[in-house]
Amino acid sequence: MQERLQELQTEAIQKVDQAAGLKELNDIRVAYLGKKGPITEVLRGMGKLSAEERPVIGALANEVREAISARIEAKQSELEEAAVQEKLAGESIDVTLPGRPVNVGSHHPLTKIIEEIEDLFIGMGYEIAEGPEVEQDYYNFEALNLPKGHPARDMQDSFYITEEILLRTHTSPVQARTMKKHQGKGPIKIICPGKVYRRDNDDATHSHQFMQIEGLVVGENIRMSDLKGTLDVFAKKMFGQDREIRLRPSFFPFTEPSVEMDISCKMCGGHGCSVCKQTGWIEILGAGMVHPNVLEMAGYDSKKYTGFAFGMGPERIAMLKYGVDDIRHFYTNDVRFLKQFAIEE
Ligand code: PHE
User: Fold this and answer.
1) Would you say 61 and 33 are in contact if contact means Cβ atoms under 8 Å apart?
2) From the CA of 230, how far away is ligand 1's center (Å)?
3) Cα–ligand 1 centroid distance for 216 (angstroms)
4) What are phi and psi of 101, to 5 degrees?
5) Potential cystine with 129: which of 31, 134, 169, 190 (Cβ 3.0-4.6 Å)?
6) Does residue 158 line the site of ligand 1, with CB under 6 A?
7) Is the pTM above the cut of 0.85?
C-alpha cells in the first residue's frame, strides 16, 4: 500500500508538471484528489489494515495528498501568471506609430466676416440685435417709410407668404423693431446680422438668399459726420489702414440724406483696373441719416432725436477680402473651397 501511494504521488506530480492549461490542471486535481480518486480509495481500504499499519499509512496518505495539492497550487499560479503575461503582450501598443489624421472643421467664411464685423462694432459700444426672417410687411416696408404701393418697393423684389407677411428683404426691419421697443427713448447703438431673401435669379453676383449686417445709432446730436467717421474706422479696420472712403449721394426711402460708401480699390491703388471696373472705387454699403418719418413712426421726437443707419452685405465683403469670384461658392459647401479658410484660424 505504501508503494501504491508513492507511485500515485510520482505519477500525479509528473502529470501536474506537464499540464499545459488551467483546465487540464483541474482535471488532474479531480482525478487524484477527488472523492472517487485513488487516494480516497486507499484510505477507504484502511479498515482492513492492522492497528500498527493504520497510522503509518494514514500519515503517508495525507503527506501524498498535501504534496500533490501543493504542486497543483504552484503550477496553478505559474499558469495564471503566464496567461497574464500573454494577455499583456497581446495588448501592448506601439506609441511610436503615427496617429490617424483627424479632420478638423473650420468656420464658414461668412461666419468669419460676420464675427469680425460684430467684434469691431462691439468694440465701439454697439450691441447685437436680431429679428425674424419671416417678417410683417409693416416692419419690412411701412415702418421704413415705404407705404403700400410705393414705387421703391420694386427695388427689393419680395417673397410674399400672405398679403401681410413676407420673407424679409433686408435687415432694416430690425431697426424699426428695436426703435419701437425703446418707446421713443434713446440712445440706441445696434448692429443686426442675418439672412435676407429677394426674388432674384442666382448668378455669380446674385442670390435669392444672402446676408446683411445692419447698423443703427439713434441719439441726441447724431450727425452725418458721426456716420462718416464710423464708416471710415470700419473700412480701415476691415480692408486696411491705407483705404480711403468716399460717400456718394444715393436714395433709400428710410434715410435722408442717403449715401453709398465706396472704398478705394486695393488692386490698383485707385488707378483703375478690372476689379473696380476702371473707376478706382468699390461700392461697399448703403447708409444715411434716419428719415424723420421713420423716427416718428417708431415713437421718437425727430426734433430731439436723430440717427444714422447703414446696411452691408457680408458676401460682398468676403468676396473682396478673399478674392472670391462667385457668390454661389458660399452656399454650395464644397469642402475644397471651405478648407482654404481654415488656414488663417
Ligand atoms: N436696407 C438697405 C438695402 O437693403 C441698405 C441700407 C440700410 C441703406 C440702412 C441705408 C441704411 O438696400
Assistant:
1) no
2) 16
3) 11
4) -65, 140
5) 190
6) no
7) no
